[in-house]
Amino acid sequence: MSIRVVCQGLSKTFVTRTGRVAALDPIKLDVAPGEFVVLIGASGCGKTTLLRIIGGLDTASSGTIGLAAGMPGRNGIGFVFQQPNLLPWMTVEQNVALPLRLAGMRRAERLDRARALCAMVGIGGFERRWPRELSGGMQQRAAIARALANDPALLLMDEPFGALDALTRARLNAELERIWMATGATVMLVTHSISEAVMLADRIVVMSPRPGRIREIVPVPFARPRPPAIEESGEFQAIAGRLRRLLAPEGLREVTTPALLTHMPADQRDATEGSA
Amino acid sequence: MSRLARILPGSLSVLLFFAAWEGYCRYSGISPLILPAPSGIGVAFAELVQERATWRHFGVTLGETLAGFFIATVTGVALGGIIARSPLLERAFHPFVVASQVVPKVALVPLFVLWFGFGPTSKVVVSAVIAFFPVLTNTILGLRSIDGGHEDVFRAARARPLQRFRMLDLPSALPAILAGMEMAVVLATIGAVVGEYLGGNAGLGYLAVATMNAFQTDRLFAIVLLLTAMGFALFAAMASLRRLLIPWHRSAERH
Ligand SMILES: Nc1ncnc2c1ncn2[C@@H]1O[C@H](COP(=O)(O)OP(=O)(O)OP(=O)(O)O)[C@@H](O)[C@H]1O
Ligand SMILES: [Mg+2]
Asked: Residues within 5 Å of ion ligand 2 by Cβ?
């Protein structure tokens, strides 16, 4: 069960007090059913905006967006937001079970499933706590579990692993790949980590800011499942290097020595260096 | 902190306060008609609570307060819910909402007595009118401050409007609504008592006026004490309601 995502001439302009912000210049993107696409780009280049429009949370200023085939409808989309957005009046397991509750699943059944999901993302034992009693990374993992709860055909993930330590992040990367392979869902994931992008993606969409547009789409040919050791291979490093050059600002694109990187604005450095 | 360390400072200062009061009354020679000693008030209180008539008056005031509070809460939440949803209605209601806030409502009490008579109805109306405003404004505030990120969760999950109302709007607004109700319960008590001051022949407010006219100052203090106990019990009930309804909220933690 999966969904094809077709964006045609998609643009978004925010009108604010201080003027108009062209968040997305016409975007053309076709994501195949069951494909794993990663979006990467400097802060403010419109990744969140694109994901929100695809998820139906914002409307485009122009262009069309089509979600075709598969099983669109109530349980079609799982969304992991850039913030955890857990409801403070529900316990962790109730939060995770929320999409199931909205879909009308019985209480015992949905809480069973929520507990299994909590265990999977590594927050087992915290199911009965209030969200405010969890650390930021744990809250984010609960939000991931919630997005997975109703087995979505399209999974939109906005920096889902941003708040996690490197080890947990690697483990959840592998877990996500496993889930994706098992369910065949279409995944669109935003990250600032180059290695995470190469590790997970079928294709990497590199975006550039002001106005937000697609600079290039980089395919990643490795077979699945991808073992962690693949990161040390020459081919992996070659793709990572290419991404690094694409993400560097104009003029610096061919020169990426660490000494020069430290003179870049902090937000662009994030996107260029990848995860710690 | 141990239980003792938490309770001790407060109890000690209260004890000291009453000791100083008692000492002043005994040695300054002040007339008990002006300021009775705590011991005298204690005696008057013991007498007061043994009289059946006292509890009849107590019941009248409590009933008026609860009725006024209930009406204020229901209309405040309902009207607040409507206003928060529709900018048009908000603009339409705005002059009345502001007026209901700034008009000194106590000055209207004689008018309510004129309209609704000397019986309990006029007191219930005063009580409701005074208690209504904090419920209304807090309901609007609560519904207006729903977190945008939380709304996204419900929209992404394609929640139906009723589901959203039950699982998002109501819980989001509840802390603010309960804070409004906490103010309202205090104001409702004041409304009922003020109403009784100005007309009628029942309730603790009426009893206080009658006692004052008879120069029984110690008994007047005893009545105030009884009213305080009633206000405290209502306030404590609201705090329990808070712990019951919003255990997830920081305000529900015990202090
Ligand atoms: N609601 C809004 N109103 C006005 N401008 C907005 C709004 N949301 C986003 N923008 C603008 O649109 C542009 C893209 O924002 P967006 O959040 O999509 O960036 P992003 O790629 O997700 O960045 P980050 O990596 O920091 O999350 C930014 O310039 C931002 O200022
Ligand atoms: Mg973003």
From this structure: A 48, 82
Domain ranges in chain A are 23-60+155-276
Lowest mean pLDDT among A200-214, A257-271, B32-46: A257-271
Question: What architecture does CATH give domain A23-60+155-276?
Answer: 3-Layer(aba) Sandwich (3.40)
Q: Which atom of ligand 1 is nearest to the CA of A46?
A: 18
Which CATH number, 2.102.10.10, 2.60.120.280, 1.10.3720.10, 3.30.750.24, labels domain B40-253? 1.10.3720.10
Chain segment B174-188, per-residue pLDDT in tens: 999 999 999 999 999
* Contact residues on chain B for A55, CB-CB shorter than 8 A: 156
Given a cut of 80, whether residue B14 has pLDDT beyond it is yes
**With a 6 A CB cut-off, is A213 part of the ligand 1 pocket?**
no
Q: What letter represents residue B104's amino acid?
A: P
Each residue's pLDDT tens digit, B122-162 = 999 999 999 999 999 999 999 999 999 999 999 988 889 99
Our CA-based measurement puts residue A267 at a distance from the nearest CA of chain B, in whole angstroms, of 23
Q: Which residue, by CA, sits nearest to atom 3 of ligand 1?
A: A14
DSSP letter assigned to residue A61: S
ipTM over 0.85: no
SS3 content of chain A, % helix, strand, coil (to 5): 40, 25, 40
Instruction: Give the C-alpha separation, B15 to A266, whole Å.
Output: 61
- Token pair for residue A239? 């793709």
Number of CB pairs, chain A paired with chain B, less than 8 A apart: 52
